[in-house]
Records
---
Amino acid sequence: MLVIWGRLNSHNVKKVAWFAEEAGLPYIRHDVGGAFGMDADYLAKNPNALVPTIEDGDVVLWESNAILRYLAARHAPERFWPADPAARAMADRWMDWQFDYAEAQRDAFLNLIRRTLDQRDATAIARSAAACAKHMSVLDRHLADTPWLSGEQFGIGDVPMGVYAHTWFSLAIERPDLPHVADWYARLQARNGYASQVMIPLT
């Protein structure tokens, strides 16, 4: 059985747990990191002291997007890992693009969710919100022409940004009207794995 190590209030852990649900993979998840700490056994698996890490038989793997690609290729290749390199790359690019978005969202998230009111930096929040809006506008233009980041159907390319989209819609920041992103987000919310693994209170 697949073992996922990591707390579910981590964006990167949410990605992996949600994808396991989408792929129908039996799994068990152990809370690690943050308030749960990391013991020596975990650090032996992941010397970076980050989450998530998975164990899948003899395979021990860290880095969330690498985990997604591995799980798709090994366990659901026909559905989530197309044989055509071009089709695969069209979805895969959004997985790497998500890292730029995560950097844009970082200050808004940390200030509004992880810091107390007296610790918040309003300037950093506004700057972060503006950067997020710029990135999401790129996403909106793409989604005007295709229903999913992965193409004509939901796929692995939707997972990383799908997790961050929930945070964007949940943060108390100004957001531009982006109808295609809003429609995509509404369709994500209708997916059982997204509702159970991603749509949890931000902490």
---
Amino acid sequence: MKDKKMMPNAEEDPLILPEELFQAYFDCRKNKRGTCNALGFEVDYESNLMELWREIVNGTYEPGKSIAFVVTKPVKREVFAADFRDRVVHHLIAAKIMPLLEATFIHDSYSCREGKGTQYGIKRINEFVRACSENYTRDCYILKMDIKSFFMNMNKRILYSKLEKFLLRNYQGRDKPLLLELIRKVIFNQPEENCHIKGKPEDWNGLPPEKSLFHVPKDQGLPIGNLTSQLFANFYLNCFDHYVKDTIGVKYYGRYVDDFVIVHEDKDFLLGLIPKLREFLLRERRAVLHPKKIYLQHYSKGVKFIGAVIKPGRVYVANRTKGSFYAKLTEFNRLAAEDKNYVREHAEYFVSSVNSYLGFMVHYSSYKIRRKILTEKVSTKWRKIYTVDDRFQKIVLRKDYKAFVRQQEKLKQRRRNYKRRRKSRSRQSAEE
């Protein structure tokens, strides 16, 4: 039980300053400002942030209720969306520890890192193949593997123990004890015990128990989607990265979350590497290589990696990505057919969604696919709201469908209706 007389001292000489939390809030809302959760917080964000700050510095902060739901694309998985105020805390933690972690990560870890990401990872693997095969003039082989149910099987005790030792050794801020306490609460939080189910319980049908926090042991599993989960995942496998690169001495290695690729000129070397990697992951992280997702082929066969198919001299969009795009457009077309107002009211969302796919596809050999999608797969109801460039790289919303313009049209219509009512009343008065 904390001594209440000591509580004000934490605010008079705070280990974490209010401006640090405000900056975390501004970072957090960049991509979440349109959500109901974020809007509700933003109505009185200064008071809400000060209340959150007091909870943090006084040690009374506890993670709030999450929203649990199931997504089916690109694969079926369970997601826990943290409350917005908890996301602010996640950004606060990330801002403090990210520079230290970055200094220890290998160059070719691509997930959730500034200047990296999917496109960079695909580019690097393509470069590895070209270099190892000496510009496709000699044999080399590609080994691709991933970890089974990675996020659900992350051991919380191992994660926190390793992270605590790392920060005790490397973090120099005077808020170290408070920061460690925040990290402990985030890691050991059990969102499945305090959540709102979005959708129906039947949505979980067909989802294997080992892929759900509702079924895994309490000391393992992090919620997919949180910034801290992505950051902790990189730290969790950092020792594996260094084992592959430094201990074994593999030159061409890259990892995106739990998918990793090794390129080598000797097929037998790669075959002998598999049991070593399996044993290391099991011993050090209690992680299991997925037995059905071990791919070993000559480079000429290509390899699928984070949404692309990498082949000699060219990179294609993977069928899963194309299928997801088709499914999204099919849903848009259905909604437009069922509701005559849907296109006008959701025009900006449609354009944003389509451009997110085009923005990914444009980096790869996909011109014919982009052209076919935009000319054949989009209904005429949607095609009238945008223009497209001659390379089918991006669609642009027509001016009369923009939200601001539609708002002005509504105001004009209200003025016209008001004038009509006034004229009608004036005529009635004159007749009387």
---
Amino acid sequence: MMYQALPVPEMSLKPSVYETDFYAWTQEQVKLLSEGHWHQVDLKNIIEEIESLGKQERQQLRHCLGVLLGHLLKWQLQRTHRSKSWLATIREQRRRLTIVLEENPSLRPYLSEANAISYALGTDLVVQETPLDYNDLPEVCPYTLEQVISDEFLPE
């Protein structure tokens, strides 16, 4: 029995606007959505971009916590090197963290998990910026989440 090959549909090798000019793609999608042309919207990529935005907010939260935790560790473990710059960074990261949480209150339940993840990032910062090594640092975060985010807390 002989089989006849089915015709293969031609696929466009031309890159989409999404791939070649992201800004133009966003403007096109906004126009389509605002004009009610739902059937022409690039739904697959819109879903991907919205998901990516959510991930970016979580990443920003972890980044702020990591820098904050690193500077709290430096403050605690290098008393003789304490500086106005470290204090300013601690305050700045707390402010950034507050802003992220005010703009995204649904991230609050993620704070404990983010704090644990961010502690590793904070230890990396300490090792990069000081003579301290990983074995000089506590294995787990020595501060409660309440201490980390409190404007009043500085480790001794």
---
Amino acid sequence: MSTLLENLNWRYATKKYDASKKISSADLNTIKEAVRLAASSYGLQPYRVLVVENPEIREQLKAAAYGQTQLTDASQIFVFANDLNAGTESVAAYIKNISETRNIPVEALSGFADMMNGVISNLSQEAKNIWTAKQTYIALGTLLAAASELKIDATPMEGFNAAEFNKILGLDKLGLNAAVIAAVGYRHDEDDAQHYKKVRKSHEELFITI
């Protein structure tokens, strides 16, 4: 645990990446697996994750992210896209996955399926989209922790035009929406932010024990 805390203290939202340094395939797969294993409500994972490497696409995304250089200089860009059509089909696919993974008859999972369908169907479309978008942030947090364990820099980013991202990546045609993104790679020696002391609330300010 001490190593985890040291690595979390080491990480920061990198502002300037070294474009010449790329993440190895093994480390990238580790980060992807960590994201795959991230917690989500019911385990449903109502989102998709795009790993963008194409330089031309990334130039377009940079323009849609107000010129932030992380979009082109980082090794990869992760785009967490929430499902805008979460419902019975999503639940059915998840139940099928559970059945096959755990060797349980689908019929035995009907109660769980009915419960999920009941909750989701009672949400307005706006509430449903907010809920699925929130799930992407759990996966994002897992990515940040996993990257820090590998001493790989990562920058969570909300400063982008989601509609433009959706258009560039074709997400709107897939019933998806770009909720949040993360740049991953290696900090540039000239990134002054790496030398800043981490600022967080004290334990007394942050935690309330009841």
